[in-house]
Design brief:
55% of the residues lie in helices and 19% in strands. By secondary structure, it is an alpha+beta fold. A 3-stranded antiparallel sheet has the order 1-3-2.
Amino acid sequence: MLMQIKIKHTLAIIAVFVVAFYLGKLNQAKTEIQEIDNRDLMEIINDYRIEQGLEFLEIDQYVCDIASQRSAEIVNDWSHNGFYILDHPSQYASRGENLARDFQTDLEIFNGWLNSPTHKDILDGDYNFGCIGKTEHGNITYVVLEVARVDQQKIVDTINR
């Protein structure tokens, strides 16, 4: 009888360690998932756009530079003011911008934009280039989606001048 109690006690201790180990792994996986990644967010956006029959957003260095610049700006000025005063080259026929902060994951950001009619308009817009900018300040991550419709013919005309 005493031997059975010792075995049960030993098994209970082992079970506690096994559960603690798996809970630790689960918490570690949760922490790793909660990082916002520019490429992953663009992939989520492009997957959505393809499902909707919209054009894939290609990466454009100019648009990426603007996204990066804007993500740093919105730390001190949470508004679209900086976007509206940008002087874009003429081949950028139309442009749009979504902002996000205080989200933990790419999917949270995407769903926030998707569930807001004005932000969804940007996701669904007639654009062919896009880029994500991200700035971390304190414990807050600031994210900007910049999109543009680039007129390829204007680029060709500019090169041929």
